[in-house]
Design a protein that fits this description.
four-stranded parallel beta sheet; 18% strand; 6 helices; single chain; 8 strands
Length: 166
C-alpha cells in the first residue's frame, strides 16, 4: 500500500503560521486516512519554527533557488529563517525515505509546501508561479508532489503505482 506524506495542516493539525489548520474535507482524503496511508508532517515546525509564528516568504526566487543558495526565506519583520526551512525540508525528505513514501500531498502557497504557486516575497498577498523549498527538495529526490486541489490526479497516480507493484 502506497503511503502519502501530507502537510500536517491538511490533516487537521493546527500548525500553520497563524496557529490554524486547513483540513481537507474530501472523501478520498478521508479514505486514505482510514486506510492508514497518510504520513502527516510539518516541515516548518520540524525545522524548529514555533506555532504561531510570523509569516514568511521566499525572497528573490523559489524553493529551488533556496536549495541552491540563490534565495532566502524572510519573515515579515525581516528575520532570515532560511536555515529552519531547509532543516524542515531535509527532515521531510528523511521521513518520506524512511516510510517508503513516493507521493506527497502538500499545502499550496506555502514557502515550504507550495507546488505551483507561492507568495512573491513582498508580503502584499501577491502570488507567483513557483514551488516551496520542501516541494523542491522532494521533487529532486523523485517524490511526486500534489496539492490539496489535485486529489483526483493523486488518486490516479496512486492507482498507477499500485498496478506497477502487482
Amino acid at each position: 500500500m502506497e503511503r502519502i506524506l501530507v502537510s500536517s495542516c491538511l490533516a487537521g493539525r493546527p500548525v500553520r503560521y497563524d496557529g490554524a489548520a486547513r483540513p481537507v474535507g474530501n472523501g478520498l482524503f478521508e479514505r486514505w486516512r482510514s486506510e492508514g496511508r497518510l504520513v502527516p508532517f510539518c516541515p516548518e515546525v520540524s525545522g524548529g519554527l514555533p506555532v504561531p509564528r510570523p509569516p514568511a516568504e521566499i525572497v528573490d526566487g523559489d524553493g529551488a533557488d533556496v536549495l541552491d543558495g540563490r534565495a532566502r526565506i524572510l519573515t515579515d519583520t525581516g528575520e532570515d529563517v532560511t536555515d529552519r526551512f531547509l532543516q524542515g525540508a531535509r527532515l521531510a525528505l528523511d521521513t518520506a525515505q524512511r516510510t517508503g513514501t513516493r507521493i506527497a500531498l502538500l499545502k499550496e502557497g506555502s514557502p515550504s509546501c507550495g507546488t505551483h504557486r507561492i507568495y512573491d516575497g513582498t508580503f502584499t498577498a501577491t502570488k507567483r508561479p513557483g514551488s516551496g523549498v520542501t516541494t523542491a527538495l522532494l521533487e529532486r529526490a523523485g517524490i511526486t508532489v500534489f496539492t490539496e486541489n489535485d486529489l483526483e490526479a493523486l488518486q490516479t497516480h496512486l492507482a498507477v503505482l499500485e498496478d506497477r507493484s502487482l
